Structure formats: C-alpha cells, structure tokens
Amino acid sequence: MEIYDRIFYSGFAEVDEVVLEAIEALKKLNIQAFEKAEFRINFMLREILNNAVEHGNRFDRTKKVMLKILYRDNVLIFKVKDEGAGIEPLRHGIHDFVLRERNRGYEVIKSFDFDVMLDGSIVEVSLNMNKIR
Amino acid sequence: MIKTVENDVMKLNLEDDLIAKNVKTLNMKLMDMMDEFDDVSEVVLDMATVKNIDSVGVTFVINLYKKVSDTGGNFRVVHSSEDIRQLFKLMKLEDFFDL
Prior knowledge:
The structure holds two protein chains of two kinds. Chain A is of the alpha+beta class. Chain A has a single domain, classed as Heat Shock Protein 90, CATH 3.30.565. Chain A has three helices and five strands; from the N terminus they run βααββαββ. A five-stranded antiparallel β-sheet of chain A has the order 1-2-3-5-4, with helices on one face. In chain A, a hairpin with a 2-residue loop joins strand 2 and strand 3 (75-81). The two termini of chain A are 23 Å apart. The model of chain A is unreliable at 90-99 (pLDDT under 50). By secondary structure, chain B is an alpha/beta fold. Chain B has three helices and four strands; from the N terminus they run ββαβαβα. Chain B has helices at 20-33, 55-70, 82-90, and strands at 2-6, 9-13, 42-46, 74-78. In chain B, strands 1-2-3-4 form a four-stranded mixed β-sheet, with helices on one face. In chain B, strand 3, helix 2 (55-70) and strand 4 form a beta-alpha-beta unit.
C-alpha cells in the first residue's frame, strides 16, 4: 500500500516540510507501536532527504527529490531518489568523502533497526515494525 | 537562540528544532558570541524546545562543544528529550559532555 508520494525541489526547508507531512500521513495509519518509532523515522527521513539535497543534488534548486513511502506486511519502506550522479554501492575508495559523510548518518540509521540499501541515486530504507518494542 | 549570562555561566536557549534549515542561522549567532566564551567558565545548551533533530543539528552541538572546550570552559546540555538523549548516547557524545 502506498502511503505517501511527493516530489520536491532541493532545499532544507522543503525537507522539513516533507518530513512533517510524511509523519502525519504515517500517524493516520494507526500502525501498532508507531509512536515508539516516530522519533527514529523522523531522524532517518531527515538524514536521507538532507543527503539527497546536499550530496545528491548539491543544493541545485532546479533538481528534485522524490520520496515514496510504502507499507507492506507490517514493514515500512521509504524510497528516495535524487537527480545527482549517484554513488556506487558501498565500496571503499570510491568518492571517499561523500561515502564517509553518508556512512556516518547511515550507521546511526542502521543502529535504529532500519535496513538500508544504496544503489546509485536511489536509497531504500525499510523498518520492520514487528521489531519495535 | 536566546543567550543569558549569570554567575560566570552562559545559558543558550534554543527556540526551534535543531535541524538543517535552522542551523545556518544558529551558526551565524554562534560566530557573534564566540569571543564571549572566554569570559565564562561554563556554557549550558538548553534543548527544552527541541523536538526534531538531524545530523546537521548534532554537528552544531558538537561544534559548540569544541569551541567552548577550546577556551577551557565546561559544556553541558540540559532538558533534552529522552529520544534525543538516547541518540546522543548512541553517538557516544556523553563521553564528551553531560546530557
């Protein structure tokens, strides 16, 4: 089931607006234990959307970011795509600086029980709500 | 960010979320008050109003801690939410300053 679909121009103010809107859309689903996951979902969304704006689209306001949220078998799936050149799937020695910056945030996201998949300019993050206690 | 100084302690009260869209303004305010860190023994960041935070916001706190430490002052964070406290602990920031 698709919960949220939004395309927006690259800016931090837009990220804030989209995150608050997406959280409201998720609240309406009445997913069990959502309130326990709300903070980490909020943090994760800001992380991947800020990265898309900053590292993906490099603050080019003519470029857009896409966010889609799906809910399937008690798993929330967040798909983000930017219009940047993209990075290789995690591999040492490629765009080292960008990877290091992105990895720091992604390490926190992973320790919040999210699964993260990077493929070029697409990031897919999922959260199994059964894991939320 | 509202600044008050009392008894050698500077208190900084954040008025909004600690997120990327707000950090540029906060950094400009920080630049203006950096010289004053020399005149106090402690800087306290009050995060009572902060509900949302991102890694840009976390970096702001780390930079503030570094600037205060560089002048020999003590730095601590007060009134952060339990979620933010847990995030800071996860990032091992409690090794550097009190939460």
